[in-house]
Design goal:
The complex is a heterodimer of chains A (158) and B (103).
Chain A (H helix, E strand, L loop, with lengths): L1 H12 L4 H18 L13 H31 L7 E5 L6 H13 L3 E6 L6 E5 L2 H8 L2 H14 L2
Antiparallel strand pairs in A: 1-3, 2-3
Helix pairs in contact in A: 1-2, 3-6
Chain B lengths: L1 H25 L3 H26 L3 H31 L9 E4 L1
Helix pairs in contact in B: 1-2, 2-3
Classes of the chains: A mainly alpha (158), B mainly alpha (103).
């Protein structure tokens, strides 16, 4: 994480002289020390090749879903009257890890037409607001959830 | 040629933002309006970033734009989630006829 933050600092500052590297290293070190127990201990470990392949598959699927959802939402907004019959969905995707839940909630929200309103940290139950009933029910068959299950299983060494 | 492709991207971005803004007016409640801006946040910003990538003079700037896009796509859904959650906590009522479906 220290390396990641330092690279991020150098890329954003655009200079790699001694002053920038020193300040970047110092700040990265302070951030890592400050968050090491609360945040970084919950992050997944270094991914292996299998997990990286799953992650690549995940990103491709997500981009596909985002493009489909954009087209569908644009049609709904432009041509439907009334434009929405919203629903609240209660999902139990049985994602166990903190990072898996955060990833799924982020993906649900970034896909137009669905917003994750709440995630119960105890039960892993998601409350999702969907713009149409069809969009909400489609979430039940999301292949992204299966890919997160696979990454979780791989991270556990199964 | 690159300028033409970049301009097509900017027009696509503008169209996405226009449709998203239309959603703000047409959709009935605050939860639904969050979806309206979703088009601008994904497709709009994506096309805009793509256009800027085509026009960038060197790779340092391209990498910076990609980092900015990545950060935007991470931070934006988090903020959207927070707005929706605070609406739920403070009792903002959804529009009439909103169903609740349990898995």
């Amino acid at each position: 994480m220290f390396g990641f933050l330092l690279i991020f600092w150098i890329v954003i500052s655009g200079k790699a002289d001694i002053q920038h590297v020193f300040v970047g290293a110092l700040l990265s070190l302070l951030i890592v020390l400050f968050w090491r127990e609360d945040l970084f201990s919950r992050l997944p470990g270094t991914p292996n090749i299998k997990e990286l392949l799953y992650l690549g598959h995940f990103i491709l699927l997500l981009v596909g879903y985002i493009i489909q959802a954009n087209i569908s939402l644009a049609k709904t907004l432009l041509f439907s009257d009334p434009p929405a019959k919203p629903v609240f969905m209660v999902l139990e995707p049985s994602v166990e890890s903190d990072w898996g839940r955060a990833l799924l909630a982020t993906c649900i929200t970034i896909t137009p037409g669905t917003v994750s309103v709440d995630v119960d940290p105890e039960t892993g139950r998601f409350i999702v607001h969907a713009l149409t009933e069809k969009t909400g029910i489609d979430l039940l068959h999301w292949r992204l959830i299966n890919v997160i299950h696979k990454i979780e299983a791989s991270a556990k060494g199964e | 040629m690159i300028k033409i492709i970049a301009n097509i991207c900017f027009i696509g971005s503008l169209t996405a933002f226009a449709v998203g803004t239309l959603g703000l007016y047409k959709l009935p409640d605050p939860y639904s309006r969050l979806h309206g801006m979703g088009i601008g946040d994904t497709l709009g910003v994506g096309f805009f970033g793509l256009g800027l990538l085509f026009l960038s003079p060197n790779w340092i700037i391209r990498i910076k734009i990609m980092v900015c896009l990545f950060l935007f796509w991470v931070i934006n859904p988090t903020m959207t989630h927070l707005i929706a959650k605070s609406g739920l906590i403070h009792g903002t009522k959804p529009t009439e006829g909103t169903k609740v479906i349990k898995e």
